[in-house]
Amino acid sequence: MPTIRFHLNGAATAVEADPDQALLDVLRSRLGVTGPHFGCGANECGACYVMVGDRAISSCDMPMWSVADKEVVTVEGLGSEGQPHPLQSAFIAEQAMQCGYCVSGILISAAALLRRNPSPTETEVRAALDRNLCRCGAHNRMVRAVLRAASEMAAP
Q1: What is the pLDDT of residue 15?
Q2: How would DSSP label each residue in 85-146?
Q3: Residues of the chain with pLDDT under 70
């Protein structure tokens, strides 16, 4: 198997993998990165989102060859327990997590949005999170959390 090199959460990473194997499989089973979850397996729900560049991308159907030499960020790469990303803090403050299964993908969608647009409107936040399916009904809290994080990140 070839070695595929990419940057994962800021660290140079090399893994021997089938180039057609899904990134999600490699992250979870080979690299121990369990933040992205398997949801639908068909790029429909967003539970497996990772950030590539400044876009939230489905990792369940993303072949390994497509991330060669690219930067991949998972929810684990946004912040740490001691220094959480402002989005992670805002989601906690707004109690925007219910069961938590989809939240890692939603945080990635929100982080990608804020990377492209640091001051989004509520409509832009809703549009950015529209691809993420959540059955818990916490969408309004999630939108408030993203706007709160954007405000805190813009503060001097």
Answers
A1: 98
A2: -HHHHHHHHTT--SS-TTHHHHHHHHHHHHHH-SS--HHHHHHHHTTS--SS--HHHHHHHH
A3: none
Q: Which pLDDT belongs to residue 55? A: 97
Residue 26 confidence (pLDDT): 98
Going by the DSSP 8-state scheme, the letter that residue 30 receives in this structure is: I
For the chain, the straight-line distance linking the first and the last C-alpha, in angstroms and rounded, comes to 49
The token pair at 124 is: 């832009």
Distance in angstroms (rounded) separating the CA atoms of residues 131 and 109:
9
pLDDT value of position 3: 97
Residue with tokens 């070839």: 2
Give 65's contacts (C-beta < 8 A, 6+ positions apart): 4, 19, 20
Angle at 7 between CA 5 and CA 8, to 5 degrees: 115
The C-alpha atoms of residue 80 and residue 86 are separated, in whole angstroms, by: 11
Distance from C-alpha of 154 to C-alpha of 156, rounded to nearest angstrom: 6
Q: Which residues pair with 99 in a beta bridge?
A: none
- The dihedrals phi and psi of 56, each to the nearest 5 degrees, come to -80, 125
pLDDT at residue number 99: 82
How far is C-alpha 98 from the chain's CA centre?
Answer: 17
